[in-house]
Every structure is written in structure tokens, then in C-alpha cells.
Amino acid sequence: MTISLSKGELIRENNFIGGLWVPATDGAQFTVTNPATGEVVTNVANSGPADARAATNAAAQAFPMWRDTLPKERAAVLRRWHALILENANSLGELISLEQGKPLAEGRGEVAYGASYVAWFADEATRIYGDIIPQQQRGKRMTAVKEPVGIVAAITPWNFPLAMIARKIAPALAAGCTVVAKPAEDTPLTALALALLAHEAGVPAGVLNVISASRDHAVATVADWLEDSRVRKITFTGSTPVGKYLARESASTLKKLSLELGGNAPFIVFDDADLDAAVTGLLAAKFRNGGQTCVCPNRVYVQDGVYERFAALLSERVAELKVAPATDPAAQIGPMINVRALEKIARHVDDAVRHGARVLTGGNRLPELGPHYFAPTVLADATPDMALCCEETFGPVVPLFRFSDEAEAVQAANDTPFGLASYFYSQDVRRINRVGRQLEAGIVGINEGALASEAAPFGGVKESGYGREGSKYGLDDYLSIKYLCQGGLD
Ligand code: NAP
């Protein structure tokens, strides 16, 4: 795939620290590849602890100035950043597709989605209210004000290279925090492009710092932030094991944490569901980004009475999905991110078939398209002893489990350590009320497969993490409450 930008425009290969583009301290680099072809896109800085420290130094120096800006000044900078992101939507969409592999329409969609958080938090910056606490004693005035927590370290995954980092940087800057950020090894270019646009938008030097690192450098690089008491918060999106590791390792400096972790979303189709709507909702929820999203249904529970009909309707639609590189305008499913991802998907399908699953469509790799393609797959007769029931597959595979009554479905849906998204389809208003309350998840889709919105609180319960991104709650994670008690006023 060629990209319509010249490198000089949006692609940056160095770290962005203190308002400057600088190579890694030791000059190291790693290679970014196009997952559709395996071809090299470019080389970027391979940072280590010294680079992480330099970023923190810059963020620490900028913090008092940024903290003391007026909320409306921060909002104005964020609005300019938002406008620049949208002005560059096509180029950014191409960049996302180039390094991440999603179809171009989805790449552009991600730009709009990520930008919506920037606009949202520009507005929220001007609504950081405190409280005047009703007087408890004569001569005393008690107030509560909200202050930025300080330096925020943002660590993000590869599946949404723009949206995941935008929805951390935007609230942090809105709150008056400064940021050090490390995107995923597979997708550093979009994050660096965002830093470039933030700089152009007027984000002052040191307020936003982005460094890239390869997987084998990530631990030592991030460790510098974990151990540095000047970094007051970690905001992380990624897998549950890494989230737990960050929680443990940041305990020595007791940082505030937001953890957006893995999911294992159930999707329940009751006998009384509108089946066409359920199929459409499942396709939207499951096959976005080729099944590589944290809110993708991973386990689909279908009630006895509609099981075979739903399976047939679904398989027919899934078999029609167009698998192709991002450059093909008809593409609906792109390549998986890397070989590790592809192997996990193949392992889940093989294991399911060994345990008795029936392949209704797909089930195979597509090497003729490139190194990382897997056919959209529907498996019938899935059972709890299959690996795909308890592990996130993170690929285009739909396993269909059978159930006979509501209590059984809810029990199975909740039988997981995870609790990010869940979905169900039913037309019975009392059942909707009951099941909506009973599902253990931070997000519940009811007769709806597309749930994300900057106005909604996004986040999980159980081992899917804590904290919320977006919505009126999203800023709280970047603020601390200070209680001021003034005496001698009588
Ligand atoms: P990951 O392996 O946990 O990596 C996420 C980020 O953490 C990457 O930047 C990664 O760097 C870095 N990292 C990995 N190990 C680290 C360590 N020991 N110390 C410091 N940093 C480390 O997750 P992923 O495979 O990229 O992303 C997929 C996961 O993210 C899935 O579980 C998905 O459900 C979850 N996710 C959750 C949400 C949500 O909102 N809840 C949204 C999207 C994705 P490298 O890239 O260099 O390894």
C-alpha cells in the first residue's frame, strides 16, 4: 500500500519530547511493518529508560504552567487540535490502515471517533466544578476543588492506534495534566502524527511527550515511569495480565490508575429476539476491526428455539464478508495485526473443532492474500471446555453456544473473570429489565451492537479493569479533590 502523504507531512520517526523531535538517546531504532504485506513502512526510535526519563523531565517542567492555564485556554487548544485531526482525517485514516491493517473506511471512522473525544473534553475542560460545602461550624468555610493529578503516563494498544491514545491525552490535557505516552510497538506512527498535530495546534512544549519502543524495550522503558514518583497516574489500555503487572509495579509510588483491560463479551440471543436485527448487531459488534476489539462478542449464546435458524442466517452473512487489504475499497475484514495474533486464532479454532465444534463457514487462514489473514468463521456446538470460551480470541471467529432458559444464559454469560461489554437481544420488556441488571459488565448493549460514544462512560468491572473513559465521568480519573477549610471568618 502506498500512502498519499510524503514522510515530511505526517510520518515522524523520532520521539517527541519537550516540543522537539529527538532520536532515542542511544540512537536505536525498530521497524514498523504493514500487516497486510509484512513490508517495512519505516524505522522509528527504540526508546529506553533514559528516553522515558527525558519525557518525564519535560512533562515535569511544563506542568506548573499548564496547570495554571485557564480552562477556556486549554479548551481552545484542544479545539484547534480537534480541527487539525479532522482536516487530516484522510491521511490519518490511511496511516492507521497502513500500520494497523484495518479497512480504509474503518481507519477514517476511527479518526472521527478518536477526534470526538478531543472535542468532548475540550468542552468538559470548562466544566470542572467544585463544591461549597454547607457550613458545619460558625466562622469556617469549607470548599472542595478539583485539581489535575500531575504527570500522566499513557500506555496504549495497537488495535485503535488513534482513538485509544486520543481518549487518554484529551482528558488529561483538559484537566491540566501533562502527559508522557508510549504507543504499541506495532502502531507508533499514528500516535507520533497526533503529537505533531497537537504541537501545531498550540499544545506547549513538554505538555505532551510521545516516545516509541519495541516490545523488548517496553518493560524497562515503562518501568522508569512506574518507579518515578513525579508520575502521578498511569492510564493503560491493553491486556489484563499487563494491567495487573502495572498495578503491582506502580504500587511502590502509589499512583492513581485507570485500567481498560481485556474482555470476553457474551452476546445472548433469546427466542423472542428479532433475529435479523440480532444478526446485524452481531456482525457490527463482532467484525469491526476484524474482531480485534476489546468489546467484540467472544461467546454467542443462542436459545434452543432459534439456534439453527440464527446459525444459518448468520453463516450466510459472514460468508459474504469481503476479506482484503485496506487498499481495496470493498474490504470489510483486513489482516490480523501479526503472526502471534493469527496463531492464537488458529489455535482457538483447532481446539474448538477437536472438542466437537462444527465449522459453518471459514475456519482457515488465507495465505493467498498475505501473511496475516484469517477467514471470518462461524462455529456451531461450542462448549465451555473450549479455549475460546475462556480466552479472548481477538479475531473474526464466532462460536455459537446453545442454552435453554434465561437463568442458564445469564449464569454462563457471567461465568468469566472479565466484565467489559455484554450484549443481548430480546423483545420482552420485563426480560430486558431483568437481564440488563443481572449482567456483570461495565457496558450492556440491548438490541444494539454499536455502543461506543464519547458521551458514554466506557470501561469495565471485574478483571476488565477500572476507571471510565469519555462521558462526564471521564475527567474524574485525571483530577484529585482538594478540601480547603478556612477558619477565623466569624
Ligand atoms: P498488551 O500486550 O497488554 O499491550 C498494551 C500496551 O502495553 C502496548 O503498548 C505494549 O507494548 C505495552 N506493554 C506490554 N507489556 C508491557 C509491560 N510488561 N510493561 C509495560 N508496557 C507493556 O495488549 P495488546 O495486545 O496490545 O492489546 C490487546 C488487548 O487490549 C486485548 O486484551 C484487548 O481486550 C485490550 N483492549 C482493551 C480496551 C478497553 O478499553 N478495555 C480497548 C482496546 C484493547 P508493546 O506493543 O511493545 O508490547
TrEMBL record:
Keywords: Oxidoreductase. InterPro entries: Ald_DH/histidinol_DH, Ald_DH_C, Ald_DH_CS_CYS, Ald_DH_CS_GLU, Ald_DH_N, Aldehyde_DH_dom, Aldehyde_DH_Superfamily. One of its GO terms (molecular function) is oxidoreductase activity. It is an enzyme of class 1 (oxidoreductase). Pfam families: Aldedh. Transmembrane segments: none annotated. Its EC number is 1.2.1.-. The active site is at E260. PROSITE patterns: ALDEHYDE_DEHYDR_CYS, ALDEHYDE_DEHYDR_GLU. Residues 21-483 form the Aldehyde dehydrogenase domain. It comes from the Bacteria. PANTHER family: SUCCINATE-SEMIALDEHYDE DEHYDROGENASE, MITOCHONDRIAL. Belongs to the aldehyde dehydrogenase family. This is NAD-dependent succinate-semialdehyde dehydrogenase. It comes from Paraburkholderia kirstenboschensis.
